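Take just one protein record:
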Amino acid sequence: MLAGAVAASGGELQEKLTQTKVQAAKWEQELKQAVERLAQDQALLGENKHLLERKRKDLQDLAESKARLAFEQGDWESRRREAEEQQRQAQEVLIALRKEREVLSRELMAQEGLAQKKRQDQQTMEQKLHNLELKTARWDAEWET
């Protein structure tokens, strides 16, 4: 009986040992798969890290470009405002010069009118002088005769 019990007990032990070996093999397989997944995850993590660094660099470049464009736009707007101010000043000068030209033109016309009147007065006076000289010459001629 003891031998039967030991044999039965040995069979149970053998079965338990087999079950334990099967369970150990499953765990070993699961551990192997977990290690492989961990290696894949680490590889993906490395790739993601690289992609994130590249995105960060791209964003930094984009921010620098945006800042440069904002500066250039500000510079352009400043130049545009300067050009508009210069144009406004030039227009004011042009308007003032046109007004001055009109005034000078009126003054010139007035001076020409005055000069023409003086020429007419001079011609009239010369004509009167000539007439007086003729009268004087006639009187002198009559006086001497």
